[in-house]
Design goal:
alpha/beta; 22% strand; single chain; 35% helix; 9-stranded mixed beta sheet; Rossmann fold; globular
Amino acid sequence: MSIQFWMISNRAVVTKSGKQSLGKEEGTLSFYTKQDDGKSLNDLANWSAVSAERFQKLLIGQADAFPRIPEEQHEDQKHVTIFVHGYNNSWDGAASRYEKLVRDLYAGSQSLGVCILFTWPSDGATSSYYPDRKDARESAEELADVLSRLYDWLLIKQADAHNDVRNACRAKVSVIAHSMGNYVLQYAMRWAWTRANRPLLVSLVNQLIMVAADVDNDLFKDGEQVGDADGEGISNLTYRTTALYSGRDSVLGVSAGLKHFGKRRLGRSGLDRKADLPDNVWDVDCSTLFTAAQDNIHSAYFEEPRTVELMRQILRGLDRGVLVDRGFAPGDRSVPVTTTPTTEH
């Protein structure tokens, strides 16, 4: 039985009523795997704790077993995806959302590949916005370590492919970040970028989906310039970044109210059009993809079949205009309704 569930966490292990779980305090970076055996993901006893080296070896083994896809069929190439949850998520809640994401996109005949949960010590309480923001910032360095390992692996695979094309990497690396998970990712990508001396050798992430991102909407204001902007790591280490947003997101309305400074939330207002945006960053207003009665837009991206399918097609690498033309994404202010399909991989 192959491994179906993968988890990396810097949450501390806690025991309550004889049951182990991951708590809201920061612990050491730990690695876990789990087969699809029908046992709950919310019980840590059902997971196997492994070393970082063992986790990496198992993951590489699974990725190397993916089918070799011709370049012109790149949309069918499998993924190694990292999912970073948002704030106000207990470990139980994060594990449940992750399991649904895996069932929807990474299981069965249409599986996109492998999905890894990165779970950080969110306090799991609405009143804990500021503590969660602090936890997010502190968790970014652990995620940067993970991303740096991935980058090193991609460099090795690039060299292998140069010597023999049959040894090329068989998986795309992608990331789905939700809410304040984008704040974690923002700093992790920046640290990974600067730690490696701002490399331009290979894209670390092929497709990044920023879902209801609780970050400033001028994150990419430096455009194509190489400087010290917060979004520089993301734009330079990612082939394409897609921000999914909705003005109906009341949770991010609360976030903006708590902040009292800075810019609008990316996940509520979309990209700041006054900024000089990088060419590989775009946004999609998902408001019309939800029903009129939907009252929890912030989480509904993972519940609504149309937004889940949009995520699938974005990850596959369909061109922006094709996503709009085929009806996966609503027509928006930055993407023409019809374009000639281009290869994005």
